[in-house]
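User: Predict the structure for this protein chain, please.
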Amino acid sequence: MKEQNLGNHTRVVPSYHLVTTPLALLLLIGSIVNLVKSYPEQWLQPALLVLASVVIVSCVLHSRMFALRAQDRAIRAEENLRHYVLTGKPLHPDTRMGQVIALRFASDQEFPVLAEKAIKEGLRNREIKKAIKQWKADYYRV
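Assistant: Here is the predicted structure, written as structure tokens:
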């Protein structure tokens, strides 16, 4: 596996990001166009197709959001434990989820200092990632 860094740490799953999501949106758009064209003569079947398309798009988006939320909870717990092990105290309660997600890439030597700096200066996740000198890869996030 290629070494992970700021430039390549994001992950695209082609079957989801480049096929499923665009096709679900295309289905929704096409079904709306079909409903508009067939209205008022025949509207029930096209309306049901729009409804089914909305359900499909909702399932596609929610499945992604639910998985990310579960991963976020696990990351917060892991990084809170790591901070406790390194410093003897938990992460500051004001640490935003985006900051925690960015901090997980910091080495153990950089982590406590960056965590404190993130709170004091209100750093955004991108700024935290740029400040990391020794990148700790995370190959498991989807």
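Helices lie at 14-38, 44-87, 97-103, 111-121, 125-131.
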